[in-house]
Amino acid sequence: MKRRTQSMLIAGFCTFASSAMGQMFAPAELSSQTKACLECHQKINPGLYQQWGSSKHYRANVGCYECHQANPDDIDAFKHEGTTISVLVTPKDCARCHSGEVAEFTASHHAKAGRILGSLDNVLAEVVEGNSAMQTMGFPNGVSASAVNGCWQCHGAEIKVLPGGRLDPATYPNSGIGRLNPDGSEGSCNACHTRHDFSVAQARHPNTCGKCHLGPDHPQKEIYEESKHGINFFSKIDEMNLDNEKWIVGEDYWAAPTCATCHMSATKTQGVTHDVGMRISWNNRPVVSVRPETSDAKMGLPGADVPWQVRRNNMQDVCLSCHQDQWVSNFYTQYDSLVELYNTKFAEPGRELYTLAKPLKNPAPFSNKIDFTWFEIWHHEGRRARHGAAMMAPDYTHWHGMYEVAQHFYADYIPELQELVEKGLASDDPDQVAAAEALEAKLEEVLNSDDHKWFLGKMDPEEAEARRRAAEEFKARYK
Questions:
Q1: Can you tell me the distance from the alpha carbon of 112 to that of 156, in angstroms, rounded to the nearest whole number?
Q2: Rounded to the nearest 10 degrees, what angle do helices 348-357 and 369-376 cross at?
Q3: Which residues are CB-neighbours of 149 under 8 A, at least 6 positions away?
Q4: Can you spell out the DSSP letters for 221-278?
Q5: Which residues contact 258 (CB under 8 A, 6 or more apart)?
Q6: Which residues pair with 80 in a beta bridge?
């Protein structure tokens, strides 16, 4: 952790003795070190100077030095114009004044986003899409430019410090929300609170979340824009009171909720939280949706002790600021039903089939067509369906979601599994034959289940007749 020198005390900070977190109030005036910084930087970086000048930091006499100063022993410290500083400002630095917020953030999935660096997603960026042609001092054997410019910019890079406190160009600039910092902290506060004005209005705006939460695999921003919430927000943005210090839904604004409203901001009974998982009752990131305490336990987070029912109550408290009980209760019935449909009809059997197919595939990840097919079913289409239902975007739930899940499950995934079975059964290797027989048996079981037997032309006659009558009644009603 960066240790602060006596100059911080000289700068005028004073501790609040009764604060358990050791919070500090603002200095009485700008420190001499910050004034020296400004002598140059308002000339050579006028944009940064003006941004800072419009910030609350400026009004609180918190300047360049208060955030960037470093101890000489810090790994990323260097001397600059006679002062020891570092380029990076990490959550540990921010915690000196914002300890509660940093503690909540550190306990969240956001802070752990950098752990994707060893995941299947990163295999795509490093191997399938990329190569090792980008060579830097920190990566003498090379690194994938696709990972550097793609995955790492949202999830966060592991910062490499070069001699003299310089930062390796493969890992900086980087404001990924799960950035792995040299001082051991995880995260980047300016992923959401863009430097150097750190505008609360900007942090509350959905576009801020849209830096990362968009695209084919997690299009929350596009989903929000399609929803009634998003429609109201963009048509009534002047009524949102985004820059108000106190921002309680139903009290300071009521035109629409933003991402921050639902996941972070205050209600009349809840304070602001920087742990975005405390109001989520499903984790829709994995192949099969799980309750959030399950994923928190896997990641060693304190949320492992917070059951999903508590989190749902937290979110419903937000909903009830604008909606009445029946609306909220019925919405969650709809949402839960969609998640369970995806889980039981496609995700769980699909995962079992993929596991059984493993001995029959080429061993390298993504060297088989079926690898891409299954990956996109759950990682792209399945997520879109679940996220669409969570945020009330019917087109993403249906056409961009469950329709594409079903299309690729039946038109691509099943035929590709059948090809593997045929190839395995024709093999001279008894292990391949045994694996093919096991996959064939499971495939037969899945396709003959109530959810999938229609595909074999085995729909229950009573259901088929009921559907025929309903279709005829519909045609007669609207002819």
A1: 9
A2: 160
A3: none
A4: HHHHHHSHHHHHHHHSGGGS-TT-SS--BTTTB-S---HHHHHTS--SS----S-TTT
A5: 204, 205, 206, 233, 240, 265
A6: 83
Can you tell me the distance from the alpha carbon of 398 to that of 334, in angstroms, rounded to the nearest whole number?
A: 13
Please choose, from the candidates 115, 70, 109, the residue with its C-alpha nearest in 3D space to the C-alpha of residue 90. 70
Q: Crossing angle for the helix pair 430-447 and 414-425, nearest 10 degrees?
A: 150
What angle (nearest 5°) sits at the alpha carbon of residue 96, between those of residues 95 and 98? Answer: 50
Could you tell me how far CA 44 lies from the centroid of its own chain? 36
- The rounded mean pLDDT for the chain is 94
Supply 214's token pair: 């968009």
End-to-end CA distance of the chain: 74
Which stretches does DSSP call E strand in 361-432? Answer: none
One-letter identity of residue 25: F
Which amino acid does the sequence have at 160? K
Q: In terms of pTM, does the model score above 0.85?
A: yes
Q: What ranges in 273-363 are assigned the alpha helix state H?
A: 292-298, 308-319, 325-341, 348-357
Closest CA to 85 of 96, 76, 95: 76
Question: Residue 169 has which token pair?
Answer: 């160009």
Residue of 261, 222, 229 lying closest to 242 (CA atoms)? 261
H helix intervals, 95-227: 99-106, 120-123, 145-146, 152-155, 200-204, 206-209, 220-226
Helices (H) and strands (E) in the chain, counts: 26, 2
Quick check: 156 pLDDT over 90? yes
The 10s digit of each residue's pLDDT in 293-350 is 999 999 999 999 999 999 999 999 999 999 999 999 999 999 999 999 999 999 999 9
Radius of gyration for the chain, computed over Cα atoms and rounded to the nearest angstrom: 27
Q: At what angle do helices 325-341 and 383-390 cross, to 10 degrees?
A: 170
Q: Which two tokens stand for residue 213?
A: 């939460």
C-alpha torsion angle, residues 289, 291, 292, 297 (rounded to 10): -110
Q: How far is CA 67 from CA 81, 90, 106, 188, 426, in A?
A: 16, 9, 19, 13, 67
| Helix or strand (DSSP H, E) at 472 | helix 461-477
